[in-house]
Amino acid sequence: MQIFPFLLIFIIFYFLMIRPQQKRVKDHQAMIAAVKKGDEVITAGGIRGRVTRVVDEREAEVEIAPGVKVRVVKSTLSQVLNATPKGAND
Prior knowledge:
Order of helices and strands: HEEEEE
Helix content: 25-40%
CATH class: Mainly Beta
Number of strands: 5
Strand order of the largest sheet: 4-3-2-1-5
Radius of gyration: 19 Å
CATH topology: SH3 type barrels
Shape: elongated
Strand content: 25-35%
């Protein structure tokens, strides 16, 4: 009976903290995997641009101004603003 309060606290902690964080990480990984040419993105540093090329599964080339392209690590992308419709840039 002495371990019951600790077990109850752990269960509450799991459902309120750990499980939602795991869901956010899973959703972020799915978003990163789905990034493609033409998507408008925001990096973790706050740079907004349009994906011009997906280099590989870890990097993408983003145009941040006309004629200015930078390569970013896809895991640093914090948000995809408006994904292009499937088949629009094929």
